[in-house]
Write a structure and sequence with these properties.
By secondary structure, the chain is α/β, with parallel strands linked by helices. It is built from seven helices and six strands; from the N terminus they run βαβαβααβαβαβα. It has a six-stranded parallel sheet with strand order 1-4-3-2-5-6. The chain starts with about 35 loop residues before the first strand and ends in a 10-residue tail after the last helix.
Length: about 200
């Protein structure tokens, strides 16, 4: 099972790559996963595959991390031995989400995601979709949230073409960063109503 597998050797969060001097700053904490460049990630995946480990892949903006993100990534981690999370860089978040986004810088978002126990590797990416990364890494499982169906996942054909599978994971999509931002802007206090 996943819990029985050894964790990756890389522990220090390095948002911009392989250079130890390019980490999260002085006193940066050791984290569960590692933020890697694409080239370092390719090498890590090769090592993991040589050890017989399976790879799951999830992606998103992860701007203001919330419980929906945690549940999505926890479920994705259950699909394989290793979990890669691709985090949209600042420019692609702005393109996807509009003015005023992201709230948190890409290096902060990547470090927060890497700090989750279920995450093994994080990579920042500049594209509007993850098709290029899927072709590069060929993960065994591409995990998408419950706001998708298997048929509506844009990268479904790419994953099927190299022999991977697509999985819909996480809890119902009733958590959103935009809702959190609206509540903050409205000055509302207390938890939102769960009566839906």
């Amino acid at each position: 099972t996943r819990a029985d597998r050894p964790r990756p050797d890389v522990r220090r969060c390095r948002p911009h790559g392989d250079d130890p001097g390019s980490g999260a700053g002085p006193g940066a904490p050791d984290v569960m996963g590692a933020v890697l460049t694409e080239s370092a990630l390719v090498e890590a995946v090769k090592r993991d595959r040589a050890s017989g480990l399976s790879i799951a892949f999830a992606n998103g903006c992860f701007d203001l991390l919330h419980v929906g993100h945690l549940r999505y990534l926890t479920a994705a981690a259950g699909e394989a031995d290793r979990l890669i999370v691709a985090v949209n860089d600042d420019r692609s978040v702005a393109d996807l989400k509009g003015p005023g986004r992201p709230i948190l810088a890409e290096s902060d978002r990547a470090e927060l995601v890497a700090a989750l126990r279920v995450v093994d590797y994080v990579v920042l990416f500049p594209d509007r979709t993850v098709e290029r990364l899927l072709r590069l890494l060929t993960p065994d499982v591409h995990c998408k949230g419950t706001d998708y169906t298997i048929e509506s996942v844009p990268e479904r054909a790419v994953v099927a073409a190299y022999g991977g599978r697509t999985a819909i994971v996480g809890d119902p999509k009733d958590h959103a960063t935009r809702d959190l931002l609206a509540r903050i802007a409205d000055g509302l206090s207390g938890p939102p109503s769960r009566d839906r």
